[in-house]
């Protein structure tokens, strides 16, 4: 069937094919970022690589598709291209899964070469299916063209329909399919739609020939049954996997060790984002207990009863909220966590509910936006929403901390968890400089056996000795966990040294700094540092 035998019905179906290919192209691009984001994050560099290579593959496809259409302007050829593109798109998550498992271990172990190789390998998987998708628009224009005088109208219509499909492909995976089905099934759904369109089109042209292409879904089904068994990332030795889910933002795991302690892991699983123990709120002097010290940087005497309210940006599964409730009583706590999937895991596995944290109200929303919607003034605002390489830059700026300052009481403090390495404190120093543009004093505590520093900024002018003085006047019947946290806070105090840059909404080179920090970490023997106490 040549392009010269064009009927309205054939053109209508041709537009459906173009619409579907445009939808799948954008869906693949957005799903690619989610596929990579579970291990490599969603930084500008990751997005630039995804978008740049997708555009490169499409460019090659446009060129090949135009020449291919001139040499073989046949509908059955067009539909075969669709079928092959659908097949290779369905292969992406299945072939990528073992690569992602390898990459996850490499990132957690700071094996830079293996991690980069895995990243490149996954991106290469997109070369064939996206190039084939790029072939379709110029091929469709050639098939739809019966009169050269209509070339502009036909081309405009094809590109308009393709772009309309791309619009659908932008929203469907991010708003509906990935949160409900996960990344792998999202790939398979869009590949299935593309296959159905190609198969029906080929059936309309050559029914007998179409039957020979039924092997494709059989192969994909067999591979899916083989590859998609078991968790994406196995639990750590000695631990049991209690829960696994893929939300709109994160790959979520809850693991339990032999003592019954539960841990929340996200994405590559390098860090523990929440901890729950069955009989205690103690966390072995991990990051969360250092947040308890924050209000005691106020001028002495500062008593536990002076803590009236708390806001948490980066609630996770509620460890900070649970500890504050145990130490300071049932104070009002507004917990903001952008990922509703994490909130659900916290309620199911970390006792993050009204029975155990009665003062807690949770909000599944962006931290900065939600904080500006709340009208309460807080004694403490805790920011535990960033950790290299996952740092939302809009929560690091002078303007953001001015908004935080406006939500603090007169004796209020803000405490933030900032990442570093044993030899590189540039992010900590830049955050110190940024905070000092809004608050009179900033203090730093290095969390032992970690790459975390807690920065505390006070509304009132204060002194570093305040923490030790408030510990010395702490009542004898005060919560022993609070006394322990204050003692550790005093011993872990380090100088807070401001340095450039200062982050603003106009210029916040957070990712550039973090990329450099991570690179220096790897080049200076990151694996050895991870293995040291």
What is the beta-strand fraction?
5-15%
User: Can you summarize the main beta sheet?
Assistant: 8 strands, mixed
Rg on CA atoms, Å:
27 Å
SS field, number of helical segments: 19
The CATH H-level superfamily of the largest domain is Vaccinia Virus protein VP39
CATH topology of the largest domain: Rossmann fold
Number of strands: 12
Principal-axes shape call: elongated
What structural category characterises the helix and strand content? alpha/beta
* Spatial ordering of strands, largest sheet: 7-6-5-8-9-11-10-12
Task: Give the total of domains.
Answer: 2
Mean pLDDT: 88
Note poorly predicted spans.
1-5, 529-533
Helix content: 40-55%
- The CATH architecture category of the largest domain equals 3-Layer(aba) Sandwich
**Name of the CATH first level of the largest domain:** Alpha Beta
Distance between the termini: 71 Å
Supply the key terms.
single chain, 533 residues, Growth Hormone, Chain: A, Rossmann fold, eight-stranded mixed β-sheet, four-stranded antiparallel β-sheet, 19 helices, 12 strands, disordered N terminus, disordered C terminus
């Amino acid at each position: 069937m040549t392009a010269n035998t064009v009927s309205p019905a054939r053109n209508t179906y041709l537009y459906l094919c173009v619409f579907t290919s445009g939808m799948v192209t954008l869906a693949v691009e957005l799903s690619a970022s989610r596929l990579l984001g579970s291990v490599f994050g969603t930084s500008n560099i990751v997005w630039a690589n995804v978008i740049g290579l997708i555009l490169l593959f499409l460019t090659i496809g446009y060129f090949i598709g135009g020449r291919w259409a001139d040499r073989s302007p046949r509908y059955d050829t067009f539909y075969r291209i669709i079928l092959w593109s659908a097949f290779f798109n369905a292969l992406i998550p299945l072939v990528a899964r073992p690569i992602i498992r390898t990459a996850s271990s490499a990132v957690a172990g700071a094996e830079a070469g293996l991690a980069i190789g895995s990243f490149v390998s996954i991106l290469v998987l997109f070369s064939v299916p996206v190039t084939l998708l790029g072939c379709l628009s110029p091929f469709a224009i050639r098939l739809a063209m019966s009169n050269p005088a209509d070339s502009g109208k036909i081309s405009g219509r094809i590109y308009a329909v393709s772009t309309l499909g791309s619009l659908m492909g932008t929203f469907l995976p991010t708003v509906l399919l990935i949160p409900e089905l996960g990344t792998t099934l999202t790939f398979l759904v869009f590949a299935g739609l593309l296959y159905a369109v190609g198969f029906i089109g080929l059936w309309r042209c050559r029914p007998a020939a179409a039957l020979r292409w039924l092997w494709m879904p059989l192969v994909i089904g067999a591979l899916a049954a083989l590859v998609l068994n078991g968790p994406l990332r196995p639990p750590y030795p000695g631990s049991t996997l209690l829960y696994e889910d893929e939300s709109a933002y994160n790959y979520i795991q809850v693991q339990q060790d032999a003592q019954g302690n539960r841990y929340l892991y996200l994405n590559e699983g390098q860090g523990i984002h929440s901890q729950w123990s069955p009989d205690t709120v103690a966390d072995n002097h991990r990051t969360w207990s250092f947040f308890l010290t924050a209000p005691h940087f106020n001028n002495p005497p500062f008593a536990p009863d002076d803590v009236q309210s708390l806001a948490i940006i980066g609630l996770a599964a509620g460890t900070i909220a649970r500890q504050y409730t145990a130490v300071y009583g049932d104070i009002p706590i507004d917990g903001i966590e952008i990922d509703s999937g994490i909130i659900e895991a916290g309620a199911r596995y970390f006792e993050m509910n009204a029975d155990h944290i009665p003062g807690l109200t949770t909000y599944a929303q962006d931290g900065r936006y939600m904080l500006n919607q709340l009208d309460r003034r807080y004694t403490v605002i805790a920011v535990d929403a960033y950790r290299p390489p996952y740092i939302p830059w809009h929560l690091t700026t002078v303007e953001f901390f001015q908004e935080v300052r406006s939500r603090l009481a007169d004796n209020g403090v803000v405490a933030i968890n900032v990442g570093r390495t044993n030899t590189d404190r540039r992010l900590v120093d830049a955050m110190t400089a940024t905070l000092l543009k809004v608050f009179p004093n900033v203090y730093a505590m290095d969390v032992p056996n970690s790459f975390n520093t807690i920065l505390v900024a006070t509304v009132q002018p204060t002194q570093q000795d305040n923490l030790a003085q408030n510990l010395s006047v702490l009542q004898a019947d005060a919560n022993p966990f609070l006394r322990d946290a204050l003692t550790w806070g005093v011993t872990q105090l380090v100088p807070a040294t401001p340095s450039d840059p200062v982050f603003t909404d106009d210029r916040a080179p957070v990712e550039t700094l973090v990329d450099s920090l991570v690179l220096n970490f790897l080049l200076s023997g990151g694996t050895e540092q991870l293995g040291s106490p």
